Amino acid sequence: MTTLVIAEHANQQLKPETHKTVLAASQMGGDIHVLVAGEGCKAVAEQAAKLTGVSKVLVADHAAYGHQLAENVAALVTELATDYSHVVASATTTGKNFLPRVAALLDVAQISDIIAVQSADTFVRPIYAGNAIATVQSADTIKVITVRSSAFDAVTEEGQASIESIDIVKDTGLSAFVHEELTVSERPELTAAKVVISGGRGMQNGENFSLLEGIADKLGAAIGASRAAVDAGFVPNDMQVGQTGKIVAPDLYIAVGISGAIQHLAGMKDSKIIVAINKDAEAPIFQVADYGLVADLFTVLPELEAQL
Amino acid sequence: MKILVPVKRVIDYNVKVRVKADQSGVDLANVKMALNPFCEIAVEEAVRLKEAGKATEVVVVSIGPKAVQEQLRTALALGADRAIQIDTEAQLDSLQVAKLLHKLVEQEQPQLVIIGKQAIDSDNNQTGQMLAALANMGQGTFASKVELTDDNKVQVTREIDGGLQTVELSLPAVVSTDLRLNEPRYASLPNIMKAKRKPLDVMAATDFGVALESKVTYLNVAAPAGRTGGVVVESVEELVDKLKNEAKVIQ
Ligand SMILES: Cc1cc2nc3c(=O)[nH]c(=O)nc-3n(C[C@H](O)[C@H](O)[C@H](O)COP(=O)(O)OP(=O)(O)OC[C@H]3O[C@@H](n4cnc5c(N)ncnc54)[C@H](O)[C@@H]3O)c2cc1C
Ligand SMILES: Nc1ncnc2c1ncn2[C@@H]1O[C@H](COP(=O)(O)O)[C@@H](O)[C@H]1O
């Protein structure tokens, strides 16, 4: 029984999601191999080789995989998959993109977004925006799984896996990369940050998000947003926290001017401590907040920054 | 150009979901059902392409029991031309749905499939990708912009974790919708009336030659660990004090 974990990376650096996905894989039993598919991704492979619990790293280094095009990566993973009992990726937009293709090509189900491993064939996952928690058992010969990284700790980097190059090139020609606009930020990634401060429609506009920045600087926090704030164009889409955005579970989550719709709660209600700042005492966010402050955000945010 | 839009009937997104006491699933008796929001966005996008003269026909399909006809009528009222119900009482997983859709794609030969990125009940986010794989098509998932080019291709801007990515796909292709793709219209009363006369074909899922059983069993469906509201603090000072000395999450 061996599990293949597909590394999450952008050719230069392994992303922290992979450390957590490897931990989930270690609970499925058996050996763990990691596939690094990319272009010029040698440094990633070397980092993956250090992940505790991993015995082998496979590297497929080719232009066809440079942008993680789902069609090409899925074709590669499908060819490798038949040697494995489990094929596992992080439930990021990359993993969600290629892994269902792998499952379909293998003619097996995919189990999305697991938050716990009960045994080699039984997994726990939220459904209905986290309003129900399902325990599911798979009778498929190969289990294809995405892992919600906020639900698992990271493995350490104390391993010494072997690195093996594989020269399987799958260039399907079905899709081509055109361009990318990535958000550059000095802040920690939303899904990895210990503190997250998010703004909602109550922020009124994008400029006002600067009120959150000063606080984020002091707390080393990442900045998130509700769907309403993203839809209104205050901030980019990659900041959306929720059922259909990013799932976070930091030590401290501060929701500012966010009402607390179930779709937003789905993305943050597993945070250790939740603080809500909202001028409406009836806002549902207070039902999940450990500390609620009923106040105008424009008054209290500058005060909060000053007192930290 | 024909566009196929698969749509799912799901619990309305405003409804508070309740788990059944015997933990066998979610209680759907007498609960308001609706078109999955991402499917609504998919229908809207297809209809806009038709209105822009880029598509000639919009076909919607839903797989499920007779009740899904209600959502198909909604899609017709939003502007789709015809509807297909693939009739089954079976509890399907995304793989079985994708296989049925694949057979339908072979019959209907659409140039574009626009599908929701995620059903808000299963939260699977799989069907479009699986269909694309089975049909050997390219995929543009989590789309916030879809542009057909003159050389029979489609450029899709995708919402990804790091920002936005644009890919180009040869047609036929599958596009899955994200929230920012468009803002769906409301169906007008005349259009709701008109929708009643639009064609709606019913096909039996058992005629498709697809095994409908899923290999995944739901052992149990439980309510999540509850989270109760804490305290309301009176001032920023009190908040900072609690975070430092009680919760110990800041220094
Ligand atoms: C399919 C689907 C998927 C969705 N996915 C997501 C998702 O992933 N993430 C997400 O967040 N949402 C999601 N939503 C949207 C969700 O239903 C809500 O519409 C959204 O979360 C509301 O955002 P908000 O709380 O910022 O806005 P509102 O609900 O408008 O709340 C704004 C809040 O700000 C407060 N406020 C206003 N001014 C001030 C002030 N000066 N000081 C203090 N407080 C103030 C108000 O009292 C109010 O409570 C989804 C919806 C659907 C249908
Ligand atoms: N039973 C179904 N009938 C038609 N379309 C479906 C069905 N189930 C899922 N889909 C489509 O697949 C999308 C993604 O669903 P899922 O992969 O289950 O999250 C939905 O938004 C629908 O467009």
From TrEMBL, chain A:
Residues 3-181 form the Electron transfer flavoprotein alpha/beta-subunit N-terminal domain. It comes from the Bacteria. Keywords: Electron transport, FAD, Flavoprotein, Transport. It holds the Pfam family ETF. Gene3D superfamilies: HUPs, TPP-binding domain. Belongs to the ETF alpha-subunit/FixB family. This is FAD-binding protein.
TrEMBL record, chain B:
Pfam families: ETF. The keyword Electron transport applies. InterPro entries: ET-Flavoprotein_bsu_CS (IPR000049), ETF_a/b_N (IPR014730), ETF_b (IPR012255), ETF_beta_N (IPR033948), Rossmann-like_a/b/a_fold (IPR014729). Residues 23-212 form the Electron transfer flavoprotein alpha/beta-subunit N-terminal domain. Keywords: Electron transport, Transport. It comes from the Bacteria. The keyword Isomerase does not apply. Signal peptide: none annotated. Belongs to the ETF beta-subunit/FixA family. This is Electron transfer flavoprotein subunit beta. It comes from Alkalimonas collagenimarina. The lineage of its organism: Bacteria, Pseudomonadati, Pseudomonadota, Gammaproteobacteria, Alkalimonas.
